[in-house]
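Worked example 2:
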Amino acid sequence: MLQERIESALRQALRERRELNLSVFRMLSAAIHNKEIEERTRRGEGRAVSLTDEEVIGVIRAEVKKRHDAAEAYARGGRPDAAERERSEAAILEAFLPQELSAPELEGLVAEGVVALGASSPKDFGKVMGRVMERVRGRASGERVAEFVRRRLTPP
């Protein structure tokens, strides 16, 4: 299970006194815990809720995106040291994400979705995105999928 791998990595970073990794894994554990609380509240359950690997991957993707956005902001603000730290944190988190789909694989899934839904214009974007994201299952970011869907639905 992915959460167990993350906890193990946190313990190892603690033993090896790797401050950056320790900081990243503590932050990730807190984000996962917050997501568990959010899910428990949403479901109306009084007992603890454990996340599926897909939900944990969603949390990791969100944290990676935050790091990339922060790195860009720091770089624009003339703080290359802080931008580099954010990139390093993102790299540590990305190691826990599944292998990304290649461009041809993703293009194939988008083409399949367009054909299956009979989509022909940009107004079908939402339907195609929903179908493709369901099949991608965390192996590509929403931004990347949206780019492929837009290209496919936009007339030349």
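The mean pLDDT is 91. The two ends are 44 Å apart (CA to CA).
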